[in-house]
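dumping this here before i forget
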Amino acid sequence: MKKWFKAISLVVGIGLMATLLGYGIQRIPTTYHCYPDQLPESSVFYTFETDKKEASEDSYTAKIKLFGLLPIKDATIREIAEKQLVALGTPFGIKLYTKGVIVVDAEKESAGVNAGIQVGDIILSYNGVEVRSNQELKEQVQRCRGKKQRAEILRNQREQTVWVTPSLRDGDYSIGLWVRDSTAGLGTLTYYDPETGSLAGLGHSISDVDTGLTMPVHSGTMVDARITGIKAGEKDAPGELLGALEKETLASVEKNCGAGLFGTAKRSFEGVAYPIALKDEIQEGEAQILCTLEGDTPKSYTIRITKVNNNLSEYKNLSIEVTDPDLLAATGGIVQGMSGSPILQNGKIIGAVTHVLISDPTAGYGIFIENMLSATE
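structure:
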């Protein structure tokens, strides 16, 4: 009986170890960033091996070996040039107009729903005509006079065709959908790249408030802004920076993605230029953020990095905690509008603030600067 018990325990133990090992291997990232002529820092459990003779101009493939012996997967190594970025921390206004219109609500059994259109879909064209606003969609629906018409929609990054037959209601034709074509908001600029003229901010995407979808950009601008007040954050009640958008255009929006908002600056920006730090250089412990709580002048505040998440497939790379008494007294911690505030450590720019924890406004997340730079490629 004891022998059977030992045998079963051994099998269970081996199975558990294999499961844990498989999970660990799955969690090893397949994309890394490093400086030219360097490999990412090896782990206790795995190392990198590559023949850079086959390398392309700025990326190459490396073999990840478990304990330096067993090949387990390939990784793409992308080189990031050592550069210096002007850390900003100044407020900016966002004006975005979508490519197509986003369906944010729909009537049950409406013409649009019966055609297969869902909340979250993006209507790109109707009746063969591109639509970029609620008014343009309405005009095309009226123009068809109740006849079945083709609509091109985008769902889960895939274009589809549906056929819609509008219904007559109170003398007007309707497809029973509510759509959004633009948004505006306030954020914080992260950096200005003097070499490329790139201007970046926010550290996360601009998403539709109702659907949560990243808004596809047809056009947009970053404009100057000024902080006019603060609504302090509390548990389960995020605060926000209050501001006024100014007339000066800082950049046209060229990209809206999970790493932030990006464009080419229309002027240069003054400030301190810091060398970038890759994830392997970042340490748990004290750091600083630059943000603006009044007017348009940024100040430095202390935070603590409580965790460095090395899985580059995620944008919540840093867990942070506000420790500065002045910042806590003014805002309660991290508030809306602070997203994009550059994070500094040991004289380098390491990332940007992105999110606040709803249950604890003193804590939140940040993104690696290398992820923001990679998004501009």
